[in-house]
Give the backbone structure.
Amino acid sequence: MAWRDSLPAVRGKLLRDEPLGPFTWFRVGGKADVLFIPADPGDLSDFLRALDPDVPVTVLGVGSNVIIRDGGVEGVVVRLAGRAFGEIHIEAAEHQVIAGAGALDATVARASAKAGIAGLEFYAGIPGTVGGALTMNAGCYGSETKDVLVSAWGFDRTGEMRVYELEDFGYTYRHSEVPEGGIIWMQAIFQGRPDDPDAVAARIAEITSRREQTQPIREKTGGSTFKNPPGHSSWKLVDEAGWRGKLFKATGGGAMFSELHSNFMINPGEATAADIEGLGETVRADVQSKRGVNLEWEIKRIGRPL
């Protein structure tokens, strides 16, 4: 890794061999060869322009929907943190919300409610950031990012600014035609509609309450594990195959699908990334064998196995 000896100068932080587990909800995983926490978008753009083009770059948000493998992540991991990437602005006349890629989805929902803008309430049920929502057309409770997005901009691997309109994303269920990792998103514009702030807040409270009652949000989890196959619910397939609450061990203390929601994997204590990913792959194979249904991962798995 000689490239690490000639990294571009930055105003943010460059950390070598930084453990990534603490940045993820599962609290597992190895180290980044280099972790870069840019000071602001300009710092990120300059870094990308100067970085050796052969060095891989991976973006990490709040780590709510990702498994970092135990062998760590090759190249540079970029983490967008702080006000420079998480600001939210309201365009009241247009009923639009402009949010940084590092803004939490739930914070976007609450900001829209305060401004009397409806349509973004579903983001209160998504445990991630705007950047992740753009990447995977995040959604829940009958609404998706494609229903509210106007446009977004970010940097490509060379540090050049790219602007995408809604139609450029080619959104389908949990999928975008924009190559994953091809753009590091910086900001998005969402379109809402006028409504009474109290009414919007009440709907957000209902979504939040529903999530608390049906999902293991206080566990070390990663959100929905599998996409729903056409005509099926993933949680039912996992449950019917007998995996709810069943401990699986590969190299560590083991992982399991939650007793509360059987499409949510949890780290009950000392799981490794191999435990968690191994559980998912074992269940995928079991469901394929028993039901002939292919479960596709919704959680991202990145990095090197040990």
